[in-house]
Amino acid sequence: MRRRDFVAYGSAGALTAAFVKQQVDQEADAQTAVNFELHMEEIFEEMIDGEVIYAMTYRDPVTRAMRPPLRVRRKTTVSIKLVNKTRRPRRFAITGFPATQFPVVPSGATTTIQFNIQRPGSYIYHENTEGAAGRVVGLHGALIVTPGGANGATPAGSPTPYGNDALTPAVAAVFDAMGKSDFPGDKWRHGLPERERLWLFSSVDPRINQAAETGNSIDMSLPVYFFRPRYFTINGLSGYDSAHDEQIVPKGYVGEPTLIRTMNAGLCTHAPHIHGNHVFCLSDVDAAGMPVCNTNVLELDTWMMPPLGRKDILLPFRRPDEIPSAAWPPKEEPFPLLYPMHCHIEMSQTASGGQYPQGMVTHWELLGPKRGADI
Amino acid sequence: MVIVRDPAAFAAFGCALPETAGLVTPDRLTPDITFVREGAKSIFSTMPDGKIVEFWNFIDARDDKSKSMFPSKAIRVRQGQVVHSTLDAKKNAHTIHHHGMNSSTYNDGVGHVSFEVHEKYTYQFQPQSAGTYFYHCHKNTVLHFEYGMYGLLIVDPPEGPGRLFKGGPAYDVEAFWVPDDVDPRWHTLAHDAGMCGDDVGLDRFDPKYFLVTGVPAPLTETDPSVCINARVGQRILVRHLNASYSVLRTTIEGLDATIYGVDGRPLGHPDHPWAKPIFVPAGSPLETVTAQRRDLIIQPTRPGRYRVKFEFLDWVARRIQNNGAGVAYTYINVT
């Protein structure tokens, strides 16, 4: 094992915890405007095998979180102060927005951009002055737009993360089914951080990072820059780390459905496969890159994630279907039941050419048959 | 913030996995049906260019034919049966993950969250949804799956074969399309290659051979195990599993199809009002990624020889693999 030690500094996932909580709290207020500040920085980042590589990040200067998820209510006026501490000009972009909507920020300069988003859903913010080059070396993050207040509910009153005007009957039927006979327990709820997770996939080709370190321009269309990823991440972490990160791993009891926003900031198409429960694929993106609720909601154990794709899935936290009814709840096998989620295009399960399964993998934990039940 | 990793736990995550010897299935019930699979058995297959490639499979010791089968012999059960699927790891350590079966952790067959099997272990599950699944080894999965350690797992409705699911579409002809791609370099590696820190190049997958249900192209165009023969008016059920490491684009030329099942879940079932069947017009590409299953119903209305194209696309650039050669064809012959 080449890993130099067993201490990693600056876990993005852990640092973002407080940030997410803060944003969830803000949602409760009548939010009409929100301000963020993101610094674009050149950094050195430790991979799961101990290799330290050059990378870039957006960083929140207060929490020091890298690639922080930005969470806003729809129709809120969003202001982002962008500070470019890198050596090249950078342009901020959001999936679904025109590529050149925001101005280029020269090296060393500061610019404040302002926008609002009408459509709730999952977005990726990223850098795009040289196509995907900035994005794949780390300049990316998640932008989550919530419906706010009573707007996010089905006609029958079930809470959803989408605006009423964009909700499809199929998605509404799924949220209405939660808490009923096939899905005993609770409905999905707004504002509970433990009922929502972000899985932001990416991958790293150290050769591209080395090229970026020179400060020169990178043209990803040239064969010399053909993307050959060696590391695969969820929220910036891999393998053991992504499987043990409190902000990535969903945990709950039967009947506690959890929304997982899956996004792909990388350049590979991925095939996330989840064990233990099938999931409902709630949303996708349209041709313009805007999030849309699906009109046909498929129950899947594997879903396709193309580059810049976003799919919200609902993990129902249902009793795992195939545990025999006469063996439920298990008496000889202990809780929590532990299930992986991993990309099934299995090269993504490696790190630096081997080290399976130190790649794009995490777990979810079923803590018991019912919250508060004595097993 | 500092994450402190327990070195033993870190090692156990991939390299030094727990093993089982004599572990008894927890909460064991009397089964309705049993299977035994031994693994891994080496098979040496000659590719169309004459090169011999080693595959590994699971065998059923009671069935000599299974010793040369690739993909491995299917497991076929009925919805509601308590299934015992025993792995007898004859060579090295392996597991069986019954993909799509939502079992308990011990019965899920994932080494790094439970154990690897050095001797025998019996996996227990009770399928609840008729459809198409598969089973595969989940030890060093990146390599063992590529080596071929997988087979189909079919769950029929309680009444048995003939319908995809209870109340679902009936079929007259059942067919299996399991496209796979082979990088021969990978098929020379040791069973535990790369698990403990070595760079063995598992980030580079450059397939040279393209197969459908174990048959390498271009033999797929004539092989009777891949080609479908049906009569006008008959309903064909195609159970389609992408077992490759490519983004797969499947195009049926001249025949419409309708997807009635995805990943073992029915479309158009009254208990699943959110999911409707998906119409795939003739000539429209259907894209799948690794491990996705699609159950297609095709009902030809005219006789003919209809070509089916499988294009294997690179996961980064979405270019056809092997400099454009990564394509397999087969035919649906309708009389």
Low-confidence runs of at least 5 consecutive residues of chain A: 1-23
Q: How do the helices and strands follow one another from N- to C-terminus of chain A?
A: EHEEEEEEEEHEHEHEHEEEEEEEEEE
Distance between the termini of chain A: 40 Å
Q: What helical percentage do the residues of chain A reach? A: 10-25%
How much of the sequence lies in strands of chain A comes to 25-35%
Report on this structure.
The complex is a heterodimer of chains A (375) and B (335). Residues 1-23 of chain A have low confidence and may be disordered. Chain A has helices at residues 12-28, 133-136, 169-177, 206-213, 239-242; strands at 7-9, 33-46, 52-59, 70-73, 77-84, 90-94, 104-105, 110-115, 121-127, 140-146, 196-204, 231-234, 251-252, 258-264, 272-274, 279-281, 283-285, 291-293, 299-300, 310-315, 337-343, 361-366. In chain A, strands 12-11-14-20-16-19 form a six-stranded mixed β-sheet. Chain A is built from five helices and 22 strands. In chain A, a hairpin with a 5-residue loop joins strand 17 and strand 18. Chain A has 375 residues and is mainly beta. Helix content of chain B is 4%, strand content 40%. In chain B, strands 12, 17, 19, 20, 21 and 23 form a six-stranded mixed β-sheet that branches. A five-stranded mixed β-sheet of chain B has the order 16-25-24-18-22, with no helix packed on it. In chain B, strand 3 and strand 4 form a beta hairpin. The longest helix of chain B is centred in the N-terminal third of the chain and has 8 residues, at 7-14. The radius of gyration of chain B is 20 Å and the shape is globular. Chains A and B meet through strand 1, helix 3, helix 5, strand 19 and strand 21 of A and strand 1, helix 1, strand 7 and helix 2 of B. Strand 1 of chain A pairs antiparallel with strand 1 of chain B, so a sheet runs across the interface.
